[in-house]
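seq:
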Amino acid sequence: MDTLTECRRCSKLKSSSHGLTNWLDELADKRVQIRIAARLRQAEAGSLGDWQAVEGDVSEMRVHFGPGYRLYFVCRGRIILVMLNAGDKSTQKRDIRRALKLASELGEVL
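struct:
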């Protein structure tokens, strides 16, 4: 079984920093905040929904609402899905670079 398959079966979600929480809190549209929070709960329940690998071991969950929000993550071990950062389609390249940097800082084990 591959790492993402194992990760989808996990029930623990962890943020690598307060950056993701701050980003979510700073969104002006409360409907977007609610949808993204629901998406994170869905991932915590073991369903990543619409996702794809982007580079290295970083993947993104796509939220099809508004400007195309993306939630970047890595799976570490068998039980933890680590949320790295987030953004929308307009900042995607920058967000992926930041996610890759955060993933490398985490190393293989938390």
